[in-house]
Amino acid sequence: MPVRVLVVDDSNFFRRQIEKLLSQDPKLEVVGSAENGQEAIEKALALSPDVVTMDIEMPVMNGIEATREIMRRKPMPILMFSSLTTEGAKATLEALEAGAVDFIPKRFEEISRHREEVQKILCAKVIDIAEHGSPAMRRKASPSAATVSPTLAPSSTVEKRHSGTQTKIKLLAIGTSTGGPVALQEILTKLPADFPTPIILVQHMPATFTPAFAKRLDQTCAISIKEAEHGDTLMPGNAYLAPGGKQMKIVSRGTQHIIDISESDPKLTYKPSVDVTFSSLVNVYKNQVLAVILTGMGADGCEGAKKLKSAGSTIWAQDKESCVVYGMPAAIFDAGIADKILPLKDFSSHIIKQV
Asked: Are 114 and 156 within one domain?
C-alpha cells in the first residue's frame, strides 16, 4: 500500500506544488490537504495519514501548535517545511521539540529550477519517516517491550566487556542527524557545568540553523555550547557544534587541540560530516575518545567510528526503539563496533560515569 500523506500549507500555490511532487511517486498517495493548523488537526484525526507535511507560519493556528496538538492526541510522523532564516531556524527547532520528526527547506525557487531533485529529496524523506515513524508512535503502538528485540528494547543496555585497564577519556564526540536536535538536548542538559572534557557535536543541519541551535542549547544547558569557529581551542566543560555547510576537523598545535573549519568537498553528501570529524580525531586523541552515534538517516559516522575503534577508542550507539530514524546507529550495530547500545534516556548517566 502507498504511504498516505496529508499536505498542510496556507499557500494554495505551494500546497498544489507539493501535492504534485508527492503524487509523482507511486509509493505515495496524497489523501488530503489543509490550509491552517486547526484544519490540519481535524484532518489528521479523521484521515489518519502515515505522514503529515506541515508549514510553520499559518493563520488560525500555526504549525508548531498544530504539531503539538496532533502529537498529544494521535501521534504520527510530521515533516516540517522551514524557511532558511534565523527566525525560521528558531521556529523549526520549536517544531522539532513539539514532536515533528524532521524538516525540509521551503524554497519556492528550487521547485521551478530543480524540480526533479526537490521531488526526489521530498519523496525520500516522506517515505523514510513513514517507515520509521517516531518514538512517540512506537511507544503508543507497543503496550510493552515484549515485542521488541531484547538487545534493542527501550530499557536495555548492551555492553561488550573488555579486559585490562580502562583508558581515560579526554574527548566526548557525538554525531547525529534526523531526530538529533531533541536527542542532543536530552543528553546535554543533564551534563554538569564542571564536565571534565571538551565535547564536539556534529549535527546534519543547514548553515542558517546551527547558530540558532547552538544558542538554544547553550541557554538550556549547564555546560557552555557554541557554534564552532576556526581556531577555537578545545576546553573542558565546553561543547562545540560543527557549523552547517562546512567541515570540522580537530588538529594538534603543540599541547593544544584546535578546531579547523573548512569548505566542504562538493562530492561529500553531508556538510558537516560525522565521518570527516571522527576521522580527524584518530591522530589527535587515538584511544581517548568516547564517540557516540545517535538517531539519524543514512550511515554517516560509521567509517569514522571504525577508525576510532581501531585506534582503541570507545564507541556507543543509540538503540533502535528510542531512535527517530534507526539508520546511523544501525550502521554501527551492523559493523559490530558498538561497545554499548543505549536508550536515549540513559546516555547522560552513562557518559558521566564513563568520563
From this structure: no
Read off the pLDDT of residues 162-219 as tens digits, 9 standing for 90 and up. Answer: 434 467 999 999 999 999 999 999 999 999 999 999 999 999 999 999 999 999 999 9
Q: Which residue has the cell 579486559?
A: 163
Rounded Cα distance between 62 and 37, Å, is 5
Query: Do both 218 and 119 map to the same domain?
Result: no
Taking the C-alpha atoms of residue 218 and residue 228, their distance in angstroms, rounded to an integer, is: 13
- Count other C-beta atoms under 10 Å from residue 192's C-beta: 12
**Parent domain of 175:** 150-354
Give the whole-angstrom CA distance, residue 73 versus residue 45. 8
**Alpha-carbon Rg for the chain in angstroms:** 20
Query: Among 127, 96, 121, which residue's Cα sits nearest to residue 106?
Result: 121
Strand partners, 124: none
CATH for 89: 3.40.50.2300
Query: SS3 sequence, the chain?
Result: CCEEEEEECCCHHHHHHHHHHHHCCCCEEEEEEECCHHHHHHHHHHHCCCEEEEECCCCCCCHHHHHHHHHHHCCCCEEEEECCCHHHHHHHHHHHHHCCCEEEECCHHHHHHCHHHHHHHHHHHHHHHHHHCCHHHHHHHCCCHHHCCHHHCCCCCEECCCCCCCCCCCEEEEEECCCHHHHHHHHHCCCCCCCCCCEEEEECCCCCCHHHHHHHHHHHCCCEEEECCCCCECCCCEEEECCCCEEEEEEEECCEEEEEEEECCCCCCCCCCHHHHHHHHHHHHCCCEEEEECCECCCCCHHHHHHHHHCCCEEEEECCCCCCCECHHHHHHHHCCCCEEECHHHHHHHHHHHC
Q: Which residues are catalytic?
A: 177, 204, 300
- Residue range 4-33: mean pLDDT, rounded: 95
335 plus 238 within the same structural domain: yes
Over residues 37-73, the pLDDT tens digits come to 999 999 999 999 999 999 999 999 999 999 999 999 9
Global pTM? 0.86
Span 21-38, mean pLDDT? 96
